Structure prediction request, 81 residues.
Amino acid sequence: MPSTDRCSTQPLAALMIVTLWLTGCAMAGSDTRAPCPPVVDYRAADQARAADEVEALPEGAVIVRMLSDYAVLRDQARACG
Prediction:
């Protein structure tokens, strides 16, 4: 009977050792930073047109909140460098 207990724990122990080993390898490269995304420059005419289009949207339009989120992402991308 003792041999069956030993056999059933060996695969589990091997799996645990491999998991810990792979986790250690994965952490080695975790200090690297992701590249900063590019920030697209828009012409002044395009920005003015976009502002006019946003002003024409109905009050409470969801796209306004989405554009605000996009502005935050653009600011973060500019600061990323």
Q: What stands out?
A: The two ends are 64 Å apart (CA to CA).
